[in-house]
Amino acid sequence: MITNEREQPKTTIVIFGATGDLAKRKLFPSLFNLYKKGNISEDFAVVGVARREWTNEILREKVCESIANVAESTDQERAQFATHFHYLPFDVTGKESYKQLNELLTDLETEFKIPGNRIFYMAMAPEFFGTIASNLKTEGVTETNGWTRLVIEKPFGHNLESAKQLNSEIREAFNEGDIYRIDHYLGKEMVQNIEVIRFANALFEPLWNNRYISNIQITSSEHLGVEDRGGYYEKSGALRDMVQNHMLQMVSLLAMDPPIRLTTDEIRSEKIKVLRALRTIDEREVNQFFVRGQYGPGIVKETEVPGYRSENNVNPNSRTETFVAGKLMIDNHRWAGVPFYIRTGKRMKLKSTKIVVQFKELPMNLYFDKNKDYLRPNLLIIHIQPDEGISLILNGKKVGPTGETTPVKLDYSNDGVDAGNTPEAYERLLYDCMLGDAANFTHWDEVDLSWTYVDKISKAWELSDKSIPLYPSGTMGPIESEELLIKDGFKWWPITD
Ligand code: NAD
């Protein structure tokens, strides 16, 4: 939704899991930024609930600590912001907790003149989502004069079956239109920019198809290992943690047809068509299309790091993948024959999320013979993080009398344009949810289709007796990932470009 006037939505926000990491690192700072920018007025209230016996004062102290370095602000401003926070020790399975929550919300709505609008943010382990949604309904917390919305964090299920189960539980209490499934990649500035680059430039859209594009590469690589999340990661792995959601969302934004309008329904409908057109991979052919890997010991940023199997809460014989590369085919008119290569991994040489669109060669390039070492295909590079921007690689003439060519790089960087002012993904998504704009959240149909695609791959890997390829930490993954492209006559473009 494009809004020119700044709206100040009035709502209470209940954070389930307010003592947790997500609340501290992302939610409190994002709310503070919205407050500082005037996107929310003084008429808002947050209720933090969790198991611990905290008080309002303790929560407010924690909120102040978490926003101390977020935006330029005074102690007084932070303290004033924190007065909007209230804490309720909570047992998610006990009806009494929901009754207390309802009473507190009603009081706060009167105090802050909020017309019964409530956001319920699930920032705790997913096994509780269904129970919470159901209790919110049966105990009347969702019965208000305003709207009620449910925000749900990843992972949305562990496979299609568990995702369906979770969905049916939350759908008993909330309509699809009131469910906001977070994929924080969709809140990133440059991911949102994909649509603008494609649909607001006469230069790209006519070329955006299998006549002019030879392949598209999406890389999302991290320096970090599993840190203290070994227990979670063992059950997830890179395929479920990254591919099912973030990578497939980027594929669908890159591949979708222009929506007829920029509304939530129209955008989602085009993305869903892409996921429906993904070529199903038969379990027996998974190895031709997908590669997995696991990090061994190595050196990252000049520091020696242990292998995955030596991390805390990880099985010493683990076969969990920390790296995935894949080739996806989209069987529709626009993309038939164009591979979309994706790769994502932990403990890699570079920390970067980038999209490289490689254009086809000219049918007859007059400069080719003379300059084959220098002539490069045209590339459009979308830098998602940590740097944000666009590069376009063209060929130009080398200065001088030889007639040789040289790659020319046109760069646009977001750095400095809005320095310090670019909203964090969570800030943007929270604000969208308050405004009722679900375009950057995932519809159930997208979740359903992406699990259907990913389940085939994970099933084949579970049944396989092949050992998982190891890659040294500090590299760009196993050699099999390079081979995946080489056999098609391509290579991964260096993401240092
Ligand atoms: P966390 O373990 O740090 O916090 C969990 C919270 O849930 C705590 O406040 C805890 O008190 C509360 N809780 C747990 N059991 C409870 C119960 N029975 N009754 C009441 N409260 C209970 O977890 P987190 O890292 O904040 O993650 C929360 C959710 O967000 C998870 O689904 C996670 O996958 C997702 N997520 C987190 C991040 C992140 O950066 N931390 C990123 C993406 C998604």
Automatic annotation (TrEMBL):
Pathway: Carbohydrate degradation; pentose phosphate pathway; D-ribulose 5-phosphate from D-glucose 6-phosphate (oxidative stage): step 1/3. It comes from the Bacteria. Substrate binds at H184, K188, E222, D241, K346, K351. Residues 196-493 form the Glucose-6-phosphate dehydrogenase C-terminal domain. NADP(+) binds at G17, A18, T19, G20, D21, L22, A23, K24, R51, D91, V92, K154. Keywords: Carbohydrate metabolism, Glucose metabolism, NADP, Oxidoreductase. Its EC number is 1.1.1.49. The keyword Lipoprotein does not apply. Residues 14-193 form the Glucose-6-phosphate dehydrogenase NAD-binding domain. PROSITE patterns: G6P_DEHYDROGENASE (PS00069). This is Glucose-6-phosphate 1-dehydrogenase. It comes from Evansella alkalicola.
